[in-house]
Design a protein that fits this description.
Blueprint: E1 4-14, E2 16-22, E3 28-48, E4 52-55, H1 67-80, E5 85-91, H2 102-120, H3 130-140, H4 144-149, E6 153-157, E7 161-164, E8 172-177, H5 184-190, E9 203-204, E10 207-208, E11 210-211, H6 214-220, H7 223-232, E12 239-242, E13 249-253, H8 257-260, H9 263-269, E14 275-279
Parallel strand pairs: 2-11, 4-5
Antiparallel strand pairs: 1-3, 2-3, 3-5, 3-6, 6-7, 8-13, 8-14, 9-10, 12-13
Helix pairs in contact: 1-2
């Protein structure tokens, strides 16, 4: 039996985010086309004598606590009456509070890893299905089921409705995070549906690039507006927008040379507080073991 495994937890990018009416349970109904980037955290899980969760010293970003991982472990153990103990280490490469779904992706990867251990135990005759894992994930966070799948998807409802979509693979994504943490709860608490103006006519292939939260997120963190102006100035940009509730913004290009040689990119790199990543999207799927 395997005693240790590592999994990738990829960053989620909202190509669009349409926020609709508020439901009776307090959540908003959403619709979003998403893809996953080849930017990922790494979670290592080892069987142990006691439960321990820590952040790797090699991380690019550091969490104040490991709440989402503790919550995930507790949900899993309670649901499946699991008594095994684990030493869990998270290497954090995805910015925190950035609208890139890092916490949800970490939770999803941990669930996949715990399921692997559970299903491999010879005394467990009843295996955990991926459907059941997504149900548990939805209780932890609305983005967790999508992050379990980690493929290009259309997400709707409160995160429970998922449909595979096609997102062109031969493009380059530029992600800019201003090192400003935005609370998703604060953004949604400040959101007013009547203030949303669906005026931006921008498409990436047939996918509309739009974010209902862009206005409210900019009012909380003005740096977002500054980054979007930078992106708008790129001569060969295909489309640009804000991911999730912010504060990360993205640009889509046909190839790397279309932005690396642009003077706006050189200006961006002078912003010392900015985290800048560029690369490809990727269809990860369930098998994200390293």
């Amino acid at each position: 039996m395997t005693h240790s495994l590592s999994l990738m937890a990829p960053a989620k990018l909202n190509l669009n985010l349409f926020v609709k009416e508020k439901l009776k349970n307090g959540y908003h109904s959403l619709e979003s086309d998403i893809c996953f980037l080849n930017l990922h955290d790494i979670i290592n899980i080892k069987l142990s004598n006691l439960n321990k969760i820590k952040i790797s010293k090699d991380s690019s970003f550091f969490l104040k606590d490991e709440n989402v991982l503790s919550k995930t472990l507790n949900y899993f153990n309670n649901e499946f009456e699991n008594n095994d103990k684990y030493n869990i280490t998270l290497k954090k490469n995805i910015p925190i509070g950035a609208g890139l779904g890092g916490g949800s992706s970490d939770s999803a990867a941990l669930l996949l890893g715990l399921r692997h251990f559970y299903n491999k135990k010879p005394d467990n005759k009843k295996k955990i299905s991926l459907k059941k894992l997504k149900e548990i994930g939805l209780k932890i966070g609305s983005d967790v089921p999508a992050c379990i799948v980690s493929k290009s998807l259309k997400l709707s409802g409160t995160g429970e409705k998922l449909k595979t979509i096609n997102v062109a693979k031969d493009n380059k994504f530029l992600v800019i995070y201003p090192n400003k943490i935005l609370s998703t709860k604060k953004v949604f608490d400040s959101f007013n549906l009547t203030e949303v103006k669906n005026t931006k006519q921008m498409y990436f292939n047939k996918i509309k690039i739009f974010n209902s939260l862009e206005f409210v997120s900019q009012s909380i963190e003005p740096e977002i507006k500054k980054i979007l102006r930078y992106l708008k100035s790129f001569k060969k940009i295909v489309a640009y927008g804000m991911s999730g509730s912010g504060s990360s913004c993205f640009g889509i290009f046909k190839n790397s040379q279309d932005f690396i040689n642009d003077r706006e990119f050189k200006r961006l790199k002078l912003q010392k507080n900015y985290f800048i990543w560029h690369g490809n999207k990727k269809e990860f799927g369930y098998n994200r073991f390293i």
